[in-house]
Amino acid sequence: MDFSSAIELGRGAFWMAITTSAPVLVIGLAVGLLISFFQAVTQLQEQTLTFVPKIAAMVVAAGIFIPWIANRMVSFAQDMFGSTPW
Asked: Are 40 and 2 in contact, with CB atoms under 8 Å apart?
């Protein structure tokens, strides 16, 4: 494996990690922003109020997106092992 192939493999793995984690992280961000807005409006500053709904929303999102994430990862692994020069 030459240097450019290693760089391309690393870039592909990095892009795969970003694209597969993005839906869950974006939902966590959106729920966090909504809860922060609610806390600012009501002046309720409880730390656990932000933690529990964000975790619950991210678990639900992960459950919904698991088939898509698994499909992307299997496809990436098949492409990676199928194009190996050894």
From this structure: no
Q: pTM higher than 0.85 for the full model?
A: no
Sequence-separated (6 or more) residues with CB below 8 Å from residue 19: 72
Residues 6 or more apart in contact with residue 13 via CB below 8 angstroms:
76
Structural tokens at position 49: 């109020």
Per-residue pLDDT reduced to its tens digit, 54-76: 999 999 999 999 999 999 999 99
* SS3 at position 18: helix
Query: At 46, phi and psi to the nearest 5?
Result: -105, 125
Task: Please answer whether residues 54 and 31 qualify as being in contact, where contact means their C-beta atoms are separated by less than 8 angstroms.
Answer: yes
User: Residue 31 in contact with residue 57, Cβ under 8 Å?
Assistant: yes
A 10 A CB-CB count for 12 gives 13
Q: In a 3-state reduction of DSSP, which class is residue 46?
A: coil
